[in-house]
Amino acid sequence: xxxxxxxxxxxxxxxxxxxAPAPGQRVLDCTAGRxxxxxxxxxxxxxxxxxxxMDRDAANLAHxxxxxxxxxxxxxxxxxxxxxxxxxxxxxxxxxxxGLAVRPVDRVLADLxxxxxxxxxxxxxxSFQQDGPLDMRLDPxxxxxxxxxxxxxxxxxxxxxxxxLGEDPFARRIARVIVDRxxxxxxxxxxxxxxxxxxxxxPKARFSRMHPATRTFMALRIMVNDELGALAALLDAVARGAxxxxxxxxxxxxxxxxxxxxxxxxHSLEDRMVKHAFAELERLGVARxxxxxxxxxxxxxxxxxxxxxxxxxxxxxVGAEIASGR
Length: 326
Ligand SMILES: C[S@@+](CC[C@H](N)C(=O)[O-])C[C@H]1O[C@@H](n2cnc3c(N)ncnc32)[C@H](O)[C@@H]1O
Known about the structure:
Layout: H1 12-19, E1 26-29, H2 36-45, E2 50-55, H3 58-69, E3 75-79, H4 85-90, E4 105-111, H5 116-120, H6 146-152, H7 155-166, H8 171-184, H9 190-201, H10 214-224, H11 227-244, E5 255-265, H12 268-283, E6 287-289, H13 299-304, E7 312-318, H14 320-323
Parallel strand pairs: 1-2, 1-4, 2-3, 4-5
Antiparallel strand pairs: 5-7, 6-7
Helix pairs in contact: 2-3, 7-8, 7-10, 8-9, 11-12
């Protein structure tokens, strides 16, 4: 599968094989990013289909929308968090006039986290490789930046977050150094934060396999963007959609009977949330897991795209008829 240089869509082949979008279907890509998956989905559903794209990053959304629309498939970009996807695709303006009550969504993809262009741009503040403002917002037009968060969080909460979200064993020391340093001057740049973390590691920094700041930066990014909260909201929406999909007499839901939902996660906490949510829907008899174990990248993909190493793909099919084995 050819992809232009830049952000490579992760697990593209298994996503397409397992989601199996068909001509004429309505697809929602919750995380449009650079449009790699979106373009493939748009080609698969074709001009009779419809593609909704969401992203918190307006520039990525515009790029992905243009890329997917170039296929000739109707594409609708929606700027915002996928936490609100159910409302976004059921709004009266959603769809090409067909009305969602008539045609709910058939395929949903969420490829979580950040895109390479966001990480590579020092002005976005996601990376410690180059100095830049400590921002980290996926949508820089709203919410609190990483610098603002670091300025106000109590030391204990900071340590807990770096431990839980970053799984950094030095979390307490890191929080201590951050609080010490912010006592003299606020931490405003990625370089200042990276230097605080390296100092907290002390001589142990030399033995660290990855840059010592890696985990702290990941924890902060997850917090700044409330990434776990957004995923929980998406999984709740999927659960609501699964419960109403294809149930006779139920109010029309946003997911069609037989709709498939694919989530690619890069963090163990996220994968656990997806795994439990999907297993619970199967237990309730409103969905069937397409993947029992997460699908992961093979060596060839990891060589081409090292970021795919931690990707885990899970797919579910919703609808009471399906779950009851009809
Ligand atoms: C891994 S990239 C997606 C890449 C995309 N699949 C592609 O092929 O180019 C993740 C994208 O999701 C966006 N994003 C992350 N969390 C989001 C959320 N809660 N709601 C909407 N977009 C989000 C990021 O801004 C980023 O552009």
